[in-house]
Fold:
Amino acid sequence: MAEIRAFKGMRFDTEKAGEIKSLCCPPYDIISESERLAFIEENPYNIIRLELPKGDSPYATAAELLKKWEDEGILKLEDKPALYIYEEEFTAYGKRNSIKGLICRLKVEEFSKGVVLPHEFTLSKAKEDRLNLMKATNCNFSQIYGLYMDEEHTSLSTIDECSKGAADLEFTDSDNITHRMWIVTDEAVLSKLTADFAERKIYIADGHHRYETALNYRNYCRENGISKEGDAQDYQMIFLCDMGHPGLVVFPTHRLVRDLESFDKETVLAKCEKYFDIEKHTGTDNMEETLMTADKAGKKAYGFYVGNSEWYELTLKDISVMDALLPELSVASRQLDVTVLHSLILEEIFGIDKENMAAQINLTYTKFFEEAISSVDEGKAQCSFVLNSTKVTEIRDVASAGEKMPQKSTYFYPKMITGMVMNKLV
Structure:
């Protein structure tokens, strides 16, 4: 099944480059332009220059800069192969929590082989950008985020044992997320951990674009004589976390509806009555709590926000309606909260089809509850739908069925930091 390897990670020499905190940044796809400029200002060697290059020839510029930093000793390869234990300590839902896993190389395989399983659809534009960067630099600056099943938590026990002492790298970022990394080079431990994954599948939690780009890059390298099967280009950097880890947090991604030619809440509510019980609320302070209570009771509930603190709790009457509507899908897929919302409301009532959703013509997304409310109040959206989180077990079941969720169905929190270790494909 999954083949993972230790590797000689490329890391900053902090004596030359500065504190590790000033050298790292979040993943490229969640950084605004103002944030990008702030990271550039913070340290002349911040990884943002390689992860998100700009200018007339951004990819060539990144390649030149990478070589320059390697030549100057700013970036150095590990002396011997290692596995990297990575922990994030963070606050979610008012509680301090932590997630810990393993950064390694993973041999990339086509999804059809059933070794690595996706759960969401992707956009081609993002994949093209990442492929161009990889072609120019032959390097992974950030990692894919993967999950694995291990009911006995054998790998996690090893990981915890190897990270009892002080971390080799540690800092707390501006979002109060503490990042820690332990560098493991003990050959017995490396052999044990790599062997653990021989019979496992990997479920992509985050980084579908990166993974599909990795496949495209591997194929490009083989087709152009740059690499052959078994070379470093067959392996990509990934963070692997036990699917049963108590620290896993998945935030919901809410839907904002905008720019419809006609929108009338009364018409929408009248049509919703066919499938949903409807309860009107005034004031949004308890909306998330109300929806989560319904979720814990096994109900499919949504917050339909129309502005001025007015919202409607929509609770699905009978889940069996989905069986008749989408018989071609697995039970796991057709019973997802996002599938119900998209099928019964966004498509059937609003007429927003899948192509429209993918192009974000009348539908946009936010992980922030506050933005789901303010966008309507400020007239940026006509209405919004507040959702509960997708469960990790649902992600597993959909992926295992060989299916994909609608785009933006999950938001694993927190994101992995970029810059503590990189994967130079040599």
Notes: The chain has a mean pLDDT of 95. The longest strand covers residues 95-107. Residues 115 and 201 are 5 Å apart (CA to CA). The radius of gyration is 23 Å.
